[in-house]
Structure formats: C-alpha cells, structure tokens
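thought: fold this chain, then report.
action: predict
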Amino acid sequence: MKKKKLGSTGFQERNNWFDYLNCTLLGFFSLIALYPMIFVIAGSFNEGLDYIEGGIYLFPRKFSIENYLVVIQDLRLWNGYLVTIGRTVIGTITALLFTSMVAYAMSRKELKFRNTFYNLFIFTMFFGGGLIPYFLVINSIGLYDTFWVYIIPGLFSVYNMLVIVNFFKSIPEEIRESAIIDGASETRIFLQIYLPLSKPVLSTVGLWIAVGHWNSFFDSMIFTVNEKLQTLQYYLMKVVKESSPVTDGVSLPLEIINRLSPETVTLAAIMISVV
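observation:
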C-alpha cells in the first residue's frame, strides 16, 4: 500500500483545485502588475520613428539606445537626482530625530502642559489653513525657492510622533529609573537608551519619511522657481507633460535627433528615474 506523504506538521500535504486556482489568479495579477513596466522598457529601447507606427507591446521592433543617449545628456535629470537624494537623506535624518525628540517628551507624564500640547497636535491633524495661507507662511519666513523648503516644513509629523510615543511607552520604566539613579541626564537617556531600543519603530517611520521625500514633486512645483532646486519626480512629471525630446545641448548627430520621438524619450526618462 502506498503511503501518503505527511508534512512537517503531521498533516497530509496535497494540492486541491483551490490551490491551482489561487496560483493561477495570483500569476495573472502579477502579470497585470508587471506588464506596464515591460511596455515602458520595450518602448524606451525602440527607435523613435518606428515606435510612432505602433505595435510595440512586449519587445522593441527596432532596438536602439538613442533615447537613453538623449536623456542622460539632459543636465536637469542629474540635477534632479542630486536634489532628491539630498532631500531624502537630510530630510529623513532630521525629521526622524526631531519627531522622536518630541515623542520622547510627550511620552513623559511629568511633562508640564502635556495634555494641552497633545490637544494642539491632534487639532492640526484634522484642520489646516489650506494651500494659500501655507504658501504665505513659507514665503514670509524666507523658505521660498530655497533647498530648506524641502526640509524644515517636514521636520515634524503628528502621526509619526504618535506612533513613536506608543513604542516609547512600551519600554520598561525601570530602565529609565535605573539610568536616573546612575546620574544620567534626559538627553543621555534619550540618545543612549531609548533610541537604541527603538530601532524597529524608527526604521519603520524612517522608511515612511524617506519614501515621502523621494516621491514628492508638489512642493517643488509650488515653492521653487530655480531649476537647480527641482526634484527628480518633478523633472519626470515635466518630461511626461511636455512630451517633447530634449535636444538643446545634446551632442548627437543630426540623423539620430531626427529619428527621435517624444514618446520614446519620455519612456527612457521614466526608466532612468525608476532606476
């Protein structure tokens, strides 16, 4: 008699119709999510004039790297990379440090006017002045058209602060009391005890902040005029919106430039930005 194979849990392992159906549906959804990237890659590596004729869905019909040669010579792309990387690194570190400092203070019951601060913070989560008052504030304090408009307004987030506060409250109070008996100051307790013990929540919140900085383009569009301050995502948005190849300052033969199309150049810019 043939024995049936048992899994590590002791239960019989077998595939039924639901397992096959589940795998089929998940594979189909994966292809749906992957196809837009395949479409962009195929178009970006296709010759511009040939792409205009249509029919490029999975593979380039006339392989060409001319679109990438044009995009990589656009100084706006590399300047956008520099600005975006700078704001992501500086903005994430400063926002994480400042928010965690406020969270540490708000986690202490002995903080004076703690409930008042808490109510003010919660109020700002549900009510705001709108874009025009916010723009006037940014302009009045001298942040308009400066790099610090990306950093200072994003130093503090009430939601992130509440997340960190809840984690700080889970740290045993006996650790802090022992540090106080040994003569440690609040600054030393925060830096050498609470922050090292809070790596999981700090990593999570830091990831949220970093992704927000990397994907942001609206503040660059509203609060900057100088092209040297524009982010990578704003550059990409302009390339897609303008849908025109960048040929100024491009040192390529004229026959190559004549073979370009706005669509393929845009797709190449998207791929470089994704990388």
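thought: worth noting. The chain has 14 helices and no strands.
final: tokens above.
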